[in-house]
């Protein structure tokens, strides 16, 4: 449902992405692994329409969205979770959830969100950034699920979180997958990636150097870890 | 850069036109007099766009043109000079701009006399230029007594009003009428400090006392607490030395304060009829102030004010009338001297007794060049007493010329 | 003691003008990132409009309090659409210069049309007089000004905290890019928000009309104090603008009472102290992310 073709991006003169071509199908979880500075965030920002200096094309359900402004992409079904989680300090937990408009029938209700994330329900009136890091990550993911987004773009959701919470995030990703949502998961945590994903892309210096299915990925895990320098 | 070039080009073109015109006329009539460039140039230098624009501003140019017309009508073929021009410049109330403009007017535009120049610091700068260039300068718009005091000079004359005259009028008369205990509120710059000094002198001479003074920032729009504070000392009169927008702010907030009902009056140090016009008589009702001239004094002033209104749509302030009179008396002196030579014109002016629609019992004092004349104590009418537009003042007292201004003996001027 | 009560009321009345106008300045800065230098000129236009409407069609203060802000809302939206919008993608400095230029233009136009001496304004007689409280007569009009300002500030606060519009404005203020990526059309809110900020300045102007000299220059010093207010309250903070406004009004009044010549200086001393102690202002947040 998400198809990216020959995507190149620049910061001024410096090229950060080189002709990346990738796709995410319905109900498929795909990870993008790569070292720091490889261009992963740049790629999702291009997909969201936040980085504009680019060539190539992005299609969602066959529709070319390459030149759409960010808010229209969100309404077309892209759900972005920023690498710093992007919780509004001036909005309460509940307001953070209610801010984005519903974009499809599969949008979660507040009750569903609070059932799935009891910690959010009990703190619904609290300021968004008064939550712990893990809770903020839950909130960020719950926020895009509540809109009914059909492709999730998660930028390193496991970063800096305790293993139990990372496991919880894995559960959410699997739930999403089951309901037909496509997920592009940016990860440096290779072990975690291997537990949730169907396929993997390896990004190095702005170039997609390999595309592996999960079995190959697990097999070559040590080599990949070394490549990533972790 | 461009602007300057345009101005230069424009003045060259104008000069060309004038030369041609002069040739055409053949220059026959100029009664054998001795004139630089065969013409007389009167230059108005004042605030053309800022806070004092309505007090004098561009309308004074019209007043000066009226003086030229009256001079030409009076003398006709007898006039010693045919070609009389009026030019003007904006000094934005800045002394350094006034200084350069005065230089330009005297040197490049051939001005024989500079008129008006409100704002004391600017006025003093121009006086220095007049002295250096040996060209005439008749100040109308500034209040400082320095012009006829320590910084007086042979070429500078001071018309209309000054701080001594204002303080003497309002301060003395209000005190003698029973307002013995004063609080003064003043803007904290040269004019305000001068006024406080002059008022204190006048009030004490009248048997009263200044119990306190309050300096305020300048400019300022919030006077509420200053007024409350002055009122808390329970004076009989609060005297304000503010002008323009500050004065309007202060009066509005005085009216708000309720001090009037407690019998604490407001006396205004410097006020123009344009202030009353802009704020409305209600706001100023009952306020007492000293006026150098009022358009509705009598037939003579009224007739002139009607002419002025036809041209401008407004009634004149005393600055407009003062500029008219200064221009007219300058031209009379030129007529008598038969030349625009500054020294000869000064000779004609000095000591001259004058009557015109502005100067009543007027004299151009030789000792310090203060132009003295009758001045008036006015009270602002209530709305019910206003019979026509601009009918705002009731003249409650005429202060005779010799009492109205600082005696020459006290001026400290030596030329 | 009585004097202190009077000073307090005077301070809050002066602070009302600051609070209302600063609120507008803060909202505009928050959503557009524009430091609107023309805010003082908009305040002036509000007062001038009230005076002109009273003079020409006899519009009372009561009606002017509603009509003038609406006119200013429309005027502000036009300014945003026709001018400010084009410079938004550039360095914020450009819009500062633009609004500075706009100020000069508006002030000059008003001077040209209405002169420099100021316009008269008569308020409804219902607001004349004084009420006695603890032995002092407090001017009804000052109390009225404070009341209106508090009501409007409360209204804006409810709007900002209790409505979806307010939520969107808060989100867009904090992280405009993210708000967009979550499906909010931030651009659509820019024009009304600018107009709304301008309307608040206009409202402050209408309230000032019976109380202050209505001249083309009346906003020139006002804007300087306003900048101090928003720096003290915290740039872009709505609560900060209101608290800062009333605080500055009080400092001005008590300064006038106890250190007359330094009344205005004190405001900037307060500003310096606040900035040293809390660089982001009393209610400002340290920048989370750029
Ligand atoms: N705003 C920017 N201006 C200039 N260069 C940038 C900018 N943002 C990122 N880059 C550069 O682009 C390259 C890709 O950065 P990007 O943030 O996409 O990497 P990343 O793979 O997400 O890294 P990380 O794992 O650290 O998040 C890097 O070399 C980075 O230095
Ligand atoms: Mg990244």
Describe the model.
The complex is a heterotrimer of chains A (230), B (415) and C (290). Chain A is built from 10 helices and 10 strands. Chain A is α/β, with parallel strands linked by helices and 230 residues long. Chain A has a single domain (2-228), classed as Rossmann fold (3-Layer(aba) Sandwich), CATH 3.40.50. In chain A, strand 1 and strand 2 (14-24) form a beta hairpin. Chain A starts with a strand and ends with a helix. Chain B has 2 domains: 39-161 and 297-369, Response regulator (Rossmann fold, 3-Layer(aba) Sandwich); 164-291 and 376-400, Response regulator (Rossmann fold). Chain B contains 14 helices and 15 strands. In chain B, the strands form 4 sheets. Chain B has a 5-stranded parallel beta sheet with strand order 2-1-3-4-5, sandwiched between helices. In chain B, a hairpin with a 6-residue loop joins strand 12 (362-364) and strand 13 (371-372). In chain B, helix 2 (59-75) packs parallel to helix 12, helix 3 runs parallel beside helix 4 and helix 12 crosses helix 13. The model of chain B is unreliable at 1-32 (pLDDT under 50). Chain C is mainly alpha-helical and 290 residues long. Chain C has one domain. Chain C contains 11 helices and 2 strands; from the N terminus they run H-H-H-H-E-E-H-H-H-H-H-H-H. Chain C has helices spanning 2-32, 39-57, 61-87, 92-114, 140-162, 164-174, 176-181, 186-208, 218-233, 238-258, 263-277; strands spanning 130-133, 136-139. In chain C, strands 1-2 form a two-stranded antiparallel ribbon. The radius of gyration of chain C is 19 Å and the shape is globular. The mean pLDDT of chain C is 93. The chains are: A alpha/beta (230), B alpha/beta (415), C mainly alpha (290). At the B-C interface, strand 7, helix 7, helix 8 and helix 9 of B face helix 1, helix 9 and helix 10 of C. Bound molecules: adenosine-5'-triphosphate and magnesium ion. Residues 11, 14, 16, 34, 36-42, 83 of chain A line the site of adenosine-5'-triphosphate (ATP). Chain A: Keywords: Amino-acid transport, ATP-binding, Nucleotide-binding, Transport. Chain A: Residues 2-230 form the ABC transporter domain. Chain A: It comes from Nocardioides turkmenicus.
């Amino acid at each position: 449902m998400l198809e990216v073709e020959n995507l190149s991006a620049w910061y001024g003169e410096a090229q950060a992405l080189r002709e990346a071509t990738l796709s995410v199908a319905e109900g498929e979880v795909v990870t993008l692994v790569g070292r720091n500075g490889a261009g992963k965030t740049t790629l999702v920002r291009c997909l969201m329409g936040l980085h504009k200096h680019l060539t190539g094309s992005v299609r969602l359900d066959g529709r070319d969205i390459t030149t759409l402004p960010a808010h229209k992409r969100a309404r077309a079904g892209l759900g972005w979770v920023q690498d710093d989680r992007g919780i509004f300090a001036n909005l309460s937990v509940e307001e953070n959830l209610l801010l984005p408009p519903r974009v499809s029938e599969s949008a979660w209700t507040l009750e569903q969100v609070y059932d799935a994330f009891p910690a959010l329900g009990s703190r619904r009136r609290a300021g968004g950034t008064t939550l712990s890091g893990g809770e903020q990550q839950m909130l960020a993911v719950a926020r895009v699920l509540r809109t009914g987004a059909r492709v999730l773009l998660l930028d390193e959701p496991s970063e800096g979180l305790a293993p139990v919470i990372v496991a919880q995030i894995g559960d959410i990703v699997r739930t999403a997958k089951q309901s037909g949502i496509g997920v592009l998961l940016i990860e440096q945590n290779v072990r975690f990636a291997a537990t949730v994903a169907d396929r993997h892309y390896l990004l190095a210096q702005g170039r997609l150097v390999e595309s592996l299915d999960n079995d190959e990925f697990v097999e070559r895990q040590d080599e990949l870890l070394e490549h990533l320098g972790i | 850069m461009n602007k300057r070039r345009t101005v230069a080009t424009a003045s060259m073109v104008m000069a060309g036109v004038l030369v041609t015109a002069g040739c055409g006329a053949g220059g026959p009539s100029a009664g054998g007099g001795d004139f630089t460039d065969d013409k007389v140039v009167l230059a108005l230098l004042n605030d053309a766009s800022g806070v004092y624009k309505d007090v004098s501003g561009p309308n004074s140019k019209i007043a000066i043109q009226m003086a030229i017309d009256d001079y030409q009508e009076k003398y006709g073929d007898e006039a010693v000079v045919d070609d009389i021009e009026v030019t003007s410049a904006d000094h934005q109330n800045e002394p350094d701009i006034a200084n350069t403009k005065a230089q330009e007017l005297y040197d490049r535009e051939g001005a024989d006399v500079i008129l008006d120049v409100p704002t004391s610091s600017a006025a003093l700068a121009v006086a220095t230029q007049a002295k250096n260039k040996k060209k005439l300068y008749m100040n109308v718009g500034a209040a400082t007594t320095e012009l006829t005091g320590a910084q007086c000079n042979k070429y500078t004359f001071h018309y209309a009003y000054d701080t001594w005259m204002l303080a003497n009028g309002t301060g003395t008369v209000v005190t003698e009428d029973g307002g013995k205990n004063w609080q003064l509120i003043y803007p904290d710059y040269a004019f305000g400090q001068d006024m406080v000094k002059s008022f204190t002198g006048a009030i004490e001479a009248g048997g009263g006392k200044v119990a306190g003074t309050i300096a305020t920032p300048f400019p300022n729009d919030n006077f509420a607490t200053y007024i409350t504070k002055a009122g808390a000392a329970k004076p009989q009169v609060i005297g304000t030395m503010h002008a323009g927008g500050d004065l309007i702010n202060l009066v509005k907030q005085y009216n708000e304060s309720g001090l009037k009902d407690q019998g604490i009056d407001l006396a205004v140090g410097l006020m123009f009829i344009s202030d009353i016009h802009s704020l409305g008589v209600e706001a100023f009702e009952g306020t007492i102030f000293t006026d150098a001239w009022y358009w509705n004094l009598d037939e003579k002033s009224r007739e002139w004010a009607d002419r002025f209104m036809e041209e401008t749509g407004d009634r004149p302030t005393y600055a407009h009338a003062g500029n008219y009179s200064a221009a007219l008396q300058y031209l009379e002196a030129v007529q008598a001297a038969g030349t625009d030579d500054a020294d000869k014109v000064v000779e004609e002016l000095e000591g001259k007794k004058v009557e015109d629609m502005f100067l009543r019992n007027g004299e151009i004092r030789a000792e310090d060049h203060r132009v003295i004349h009758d001045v008036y104590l006015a009270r602002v009418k209530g709305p019910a007493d206003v019979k026509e537009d601009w009918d705002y003042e009731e003249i409650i007292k005429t202060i005779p010329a010799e009492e109205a201004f600082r005696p020459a003996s006290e001026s400290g001027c030596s030329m | 003691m009585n004097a202190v009560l009077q000073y307090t009321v005077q301070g809050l009345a002066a602070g009302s003008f600051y609070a209302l106008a600063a609120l507008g300045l803060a909202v505009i800065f928050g959503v557009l990132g524009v430091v609107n230098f023309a805010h003082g000129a908009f305040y002036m236009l509000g007062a001038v409009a009230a005076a002109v409407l009273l003079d020409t069609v006899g519009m009372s203060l009561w009606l002017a309090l509603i009509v003038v802000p609406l006119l200013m809302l429309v005027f502000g939206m036009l300014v945003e659409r026709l001018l400010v919008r084009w410079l938004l993608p550039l360095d914020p400095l450009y819009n500062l210069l633009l609004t500075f230029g706009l100020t000069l233009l508006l002030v000059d136009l008003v001077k040209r049309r209405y002169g420099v001496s100021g316009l008269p304004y008569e308020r409804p007689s219902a607001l004349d007089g004084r009420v006695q409280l603890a032995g002092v007569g407090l001017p009804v009009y000052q109390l009225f000004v404070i009341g209106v300002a508090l009501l409007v500030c409360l209204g804006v606060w409810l709007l900002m905290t209790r409505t979806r519009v307010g939520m969107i404005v808060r989100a867009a203020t904090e992280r405009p890019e993210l708000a967009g990526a979550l499906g909010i059309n931030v651009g659509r809110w820019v024009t009304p928000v600018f107009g709304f900020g301008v309307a608040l300045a206009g409202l402050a102007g209408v309230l000032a009309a019976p109380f202050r000299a209505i001249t083309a220059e009346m906003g020139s010093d006002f804007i300087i104090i306003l900048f101090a207010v928003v720096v003290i309250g915290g740039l872009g903070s709505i609560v900060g603008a209101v608290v800062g406004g009333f605080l500055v009004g009080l400092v001005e009044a008590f300064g006038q009472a106890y250190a007359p010549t330094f009344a205005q200086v004190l405001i900037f001393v307060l500003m310096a102290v606040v900035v040293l102690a809390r660089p982001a202002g009393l209610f400002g947040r340290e920048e989370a992310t750029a």
